[in-house]
## 1
Amino acid sequence: METIELSVEKRERVGKGGARKLRRQKKVPAILYGRRRQPVPLAIPEKDFQSKVAAIEGAHLIRLKGEVEGLEECVALVKEVQVHPVTSALLHVDFYEVDLAEKLTVAAPLHFVGKAAGVALGGILQPLRREISVRCLPMSIPEFIEVDVSALGIHDTIHVSELRLPEGVEAVYTEDFPLVTILPPTVEETRAEAAPEAGTPAPAEQAKTAGEK
């Protein structure tokens, strides 16, 4: 997979005061850590993070670039993003450094493609999961996984074990959970189909009319 380059700088001042100062400068406080790395406080341009990282779905490898000692060739994943509960402004970002030679577990979005046969009969496509956990090498992380629903009839279901995954990618699960199903038409739709057209007497009224002749 392609990596995203993101400029960073060493954060000299930590704590709430330093974080507020960074945000006034349109920068976001961040931290980089990993199994073989001591935590490194960083600052990243808010605009860059919003346009390059926050706007895309799924897990993506990020190359951190900047004049920070020990950061050469550092590749990381976004581990956590904290946002303000009211304004949704970025508050803090956690980066986790990865080893390109070691497998890891990440969340992969599901994209449901095709028109299900059951939908053509009035059924309703009902996704049950929007993403699944997969295990693979960092460079093999899928941007998304396609789930073809074309063959699904009403009441049919696709389970995680039925997915066709890219080479080198395996789904992580302990039970064969469902991903998507086709629900039958709703009660309201069924009643609407069974209701007589405007101006057409109901069966009981038709019988009564016939008896009066």
## 2
Amino acid sequence: NSISQLETTLLIKQFSMIEHPRIERSKKYPLINILIFSFIAILAGQESWYQMQMFCEETLDWFAEFLDISSGVPSHDTFRRVFSIINPEDFENSIIRWLEELRKSRAYSQRVVALDGKSVRGHSWKVSEQKLHILNAWDCTEQKFAGQLSIDCKVNEISAAPQLLHKLHLEKTVITVDAMMTQTEIARTIMEREGEYFMALKKNQKQLFEDVQLYFSKVELGMSSSRTLEKNRGQVEIRTGTKAKADWIDQKQRWKGLKNIFQVETEIYQDGKIKTEKRYYITSLDWEANQLLKLSRDHWLIENQLHRTLDIHFQEDACQEHHRNAAANLSLLRKLGLSLLKQIDPKSKMIIKKKKVAYSPDFRRKCLLGEF
């Protein structure tokens, strides 16, 4: 009965769809067991294959509610070997399908999804110094992981972004990107998939950047603006956002759906000194200036809510897994775990919730079945 309940759980269904990479004679441990063991162990703060094995051995009776545990717990070498031969792309696609199914299963409003890359710094190749780089999609509205794509280096984010976007349902979705991914192909992909974009603009789009910068150098008819003021730790920050129509831009036809340009001017007052900065954006949105000003900050939630949390609470940069596939697959499980823990008791601290996974069978069950 409990196994039947397990099979009806969307997350488990998606795990079950992952192709078993091992040959028949070496399949002593079901792949679904290895994935669920690993997922719960990571949620509980276990950071190495040895720790995963020991944690699962100590909690094996708990897993019996959901899995056939007659084969027992794999060794740390088996955990490592299986994660090294699982195709990260298959694993990524499986999780993205699950996340998108969850989203489609309920009514939802507009969401903001930020795209940004992160290198897994603890991962190093034994034959090369090249690090594993992963392009992430983070749902800033619901504070959860939306998807990832493993790539070779940061430069490849430009070619990887359209591939990742094609895996997401972009209806009622605003995609935000940094200046490197401000490319005509990425803008076209977003619009063709019924999304909207908000893109940072720098000198890599030299002519467009200079035109927009020059336009905002003086007040023009039709501009609108909004201002915010924040005080924090002896620092006063004034941010002024100014929106203007993009109708006059010569290159407008190259940027599918382009409607507005946007400038954010930041003034920081601290210790009697003033620091100023201007940043520029292009967007398909026709939102008010105050909404675009907030959106310019929302993009950086991917750094604070995802990348920083992975390093502080899940020790991702400290992970010394050398195999590329294993490092990518572990990163995916961490993000999935991070997202689930953020949805459960949102006001509780992440470290407290991880400890509860380790010590509370009821809380562990809540996480596995997504009861939040």
## 3
Amino acid sequence: MKKWLMCVLILLMMAPAVQGKDTKKSKNTSKAVQKKAENASPAQEKEVPFQALIVMEAGTGQVLEEVNPHLKHPLASVTKLMTAAIVMEKLESGAAQLNETITVSGAASKMGGSQVYLKEGEVFTLEELMKAIMVASGNDAAYAVAEHLAGTTDAFVEEMNKKAKRLGMNDSEFHTVHGLPPSSENQADVSSCHDLMILARDLLKYPKLLEWTALQIEPFRGGAFIMHNHNKIIGKLPGTDGLKTGYYSKAGFNIVATAKKDGLRLIVAVLGSPKAKIRDAVAIERFKKYLAQYQMAVLSKKDQAFGEVLQVPDGMVTTVQAVAAADFSYPLPREKKAAVKNEIRLPKEISGGIEQGQTLGEVEFFLDNQSIGKVNLISPVTIQKAGFFKRLFR
């Protein structure tokens, strides 16, 4: 019993000392955390997810969201989209063929950064090297293609800048065919989200390009080298089929991506993200948001009748029904389709005869009193002018 009491007394005497040590330790920990917080930079406290962003519907060019759309920013390998635009233009005109062969030069084989490890003297088709550019972001492949098609890479860059001017890409300036970071005496390839939308919409005219940019993996050099797409959104988000990523330290992580769902195609550009995962997450979040909120509302179909029947008093047939000259769809918030109004402009009668396809008037569509588009209304048939006696008899 005495021994038991003695143990209790010893424990009671030790308790304050132990508690004091814990309290002291707690105070020291609090001070360390506070000091760490005081020394933390604003960037560490809240990382900026991007420097510029734009979300656009591809068909109409309607901007759904934008942040710093005209900020001129280093592109890194996104530059290769303009390289691809020149190649696709040459293919369309017949100045180049997908099956033509390209012999790798010594200069092309010495390119650094992302590459497919081309060796001097190797021979590939243009299509093989285009896949290497668009899937593996091969700087060596871009150099080899440009050199082959234009004689020199400088001449190819000149074509890139001329095309940028033709397209109205006024925020853009190209100095390389690949987008590698510039040396001290050179300048970076720069563009803006606004300009990249112009370029992306131009590239979407070419289904073959989307075939390449949609590839997740692709064998190269007879399967000896397996290329993996740098655009990791491909496969993560259904409907994504392009276009290009880019990175170096001063440029940050960039992307121009496109995805389609139920006839609605969106393009998203993100420039200057601090991490690839942040860039991709921003793009995926925007795709999911706007693909869910918007739909491509069909407002007119080719040959759809509009307006009242028109009188053709001088014709062999005396009436005609005007029809739409083309399909017209517009990206609308899902709840807004019923709010679209149209205004039909047609004369009450047409004198003389009418040719098939002749413009008779137009229909204009409005949302919240703002015009969102027009479609010509045409004659679906030819109506010959009646002879003098037939008209006199009438």
## 4
Amino acid sequence: PAYMNTVNCISKISFINGEKGILEYRGYPIEQLAEKSTFLECTFLLMYGELPTAKQSTLFSKKIMKNSGFHAGLEPFITAFGTTPTHGNDEHAYGCDVKFYPEANPAYVGADIYKTQKERNKHIYRVIGCAPAIAAACYRHRIGKPIVKPKEDLGYMENFLYMMDKNPSDSNYKPHPKIVKA
């Protein structure tokens, strides 16, 4: 019954055969990706059609992590939601919308983001990079904890877990590697 509300189409990105238990992204079985690839490697695969080389993976990760924070003006928007439970997606979507102040938003300055791959990538790095920081900030605010700023020197998932779980008094906190991998 749930499939009745799903768009059915031919896709170059994914393949699914529920009867046989097959789910593939760009020809790779989901089990293989889950076991051997990172989140950002899978993101690269979905975007560019192939898994990255080691060099491409390092460069892609650096570009994403360089955009892992949000400007200070966003925090008041997040805290304006209060701490009463709301749907987390509302807060996160709102945070992503306001993250891009006018001069950073190509739509506001008349840029054609589809003109060049370089221009598209710049905005892709921003969205993928800041999404965990916004999600973690919304979560921490909702549970009454101070917002933790991202650390560019951590990996993507490690940074997300760091921002979600860090105790302000623990300056050496790092998420457990097994949890990061999971």
